[in-house]
Amino acid sequence: MIGGQQPLRGRKLGDRRIRVERPHAAYFRWSGKGVMTAKAAASTPTTGMGRAMATVRRVLLGRPLASEEELGERLSKKKALAIFSSDAISSSAYATEEILRVLILGGAAALALGLEVSIAIAVLLVAVAISYRQVCIAYPTGGGSYSVSKRNFGRNASLIAASALLIDYVMTVAVSTTSAVEQITSALPELIDERVAIGVIAIALITIGNLRGLREAGNIFAIPTYLFVGSALLMIGIGVFRIVIGGERAEFNTAIAEQAGQIPEQVGILLLLRAFAAGAVALTGTEAIATGVPAFQPPEARNAATTLGAMAILLGILFIGITFLAVNFGITHLDLPEKQTVISQVARRVYGDGSIPFYLFQAFTALLLFLAANTSFNAFPRLLAILSTDSHMPRQFGLRGDRLAYSYGIIALGVVASSLIVVFNGETHLLIPLYAVGVFIDFTISQAGMIRHWLRERPDGWQRRLAINAFGCVLTGIVAVVVAAAKAPASMIVLFLIPCLVFIMLSIRRQYEGQAEELHVREDTIFARPHREQRAVVPVNGINRAVVQAVTFARTIATDVRAVYVTVDTEEAAAMLRRWERQLPGVPLVIVESPFRAIVEPFVAYLDVLDESWPPDREAPVTIVVLPEYVAKHWWDRLLYNQTANRLKAAIVGREHTVIADVPYRRDH
To answer: Within this chain, do residues 39 and 136 fall inside the same structural domain, yes or no?
Structure first.
């Protein structure tokens, strides 16, 4: 029996049928398909608005998934390559352009060094990828550099790594999206004034796609990734053939070849370092696979390491190949208002201006760049969830939504990235200087942590693994300094934000630790059943259904029940008292006059009077403040009600010997 009603077996509740497998079970479970079984009960929306919102949510996000279905949501290597590698692979669409933007400052001759710079970055990519394969194997629970640095260096180092990662994940979404819009405007220049709106809408759609869960995300993102890779490889193959076999090169390449011996003096080391730092954005997103190891199908670590290797090979080929074509075709960037990205100019040269293959390639590139943000939409919420588990972020970030996705982290990332696009007017080049600084700091901390890991654990083959990570640590440390110096003063913004985030996360942990200390109960403490007296006090604003329900409830939990009516009008109060005694006999109504028109303070003062009037030789009773609350049917009405009740709660919370009981009332009751 529940609430004096008939047993639940076979009853219908709204459009749900409830089945109780164990009638005397202490808890129930809702199966998500209209059947309730013993474990944990869930409510069903009963209002029109609630049902409408549930329908919209189901259409957008799909049916809820039980926790046991998570293994079925794991990613195969093919899908994981599309999801976790889309950011790194898509960076080939703008990394070459960033190199050429810098080298053009040294004149036409300097552009010839674009290929050498891209090869140097590809070597760095290989070193980082090999190093992070060790992370996947050593830390299969995921978390990437955060987990590595936490285990080996402690809290502060791990929070520095986490802060750098969080910044770069946000920048990944913003940069990938703005670059995608630039690919569209390169093919359709008339849309250039709509670039901000297109970017924001794209992020909204990607957010919804990720809220639907991993399996759907893999299905959505796999096709465009492989379409881009296939069309880009075809473009590189055709372009290389035309350059090497057909001798099709830019006119000034002859002059460049003649000046090859003089290029170092003309260009200068500083310009080369700046070009290297600009192109280093190609490595962003490399760590996403190490962070998301738990999302892979078993064996997770091995599959993640294999996927990481495939990603590095693909990115290296695409990056070097596109740079080779751009250098030999004499292509560089074209700024607004004739904005033409480097990769779009290469595609136009290879596939033909205005041809169907050209427009298809631009579409594949733009779509991949839009979806490249998905790397962050997978890794960013997972990192926030790990941080929340360690009490460094609000615990809501560790909660999974209906589709087993970390919904709060996904939504937060979408909002912040959209804001950046609006602030920077959708221009990739303005966002790039904020990019890649944090990720190399993160790389360095991670590799240093792995050095300490191998020295401490010393498993079979640890010397080889130690050498790999030591080399990676030195290399990425040098690059971190180069990138920070070359991108100053913009890099200083990131270097300022990292300690700010560390401070915030430490503050959140202190808050949680303080709360835990306040709520701690010693294990050797035994709480006997109390025999304290209790009284109920009901603040009322008149006689209505909500008040009557609250008074009725109060009479079930205490024998000493009184209502309190705060007023500024004594005549109105006298009329209220007469009506109260007629309609609610047996419950005294206390009139509290408030000449200064306050409500909360006089009520609290009355509670003080009650406490002071209690005999000092007897234990003070528990005062239960029963608050009647009217629940509006529509969400837009709720701001109009219960504001006084909320202020009363704020004033009473923490008061000695006092508890609060909310009694909501809605007409449906």
So the answer is: no
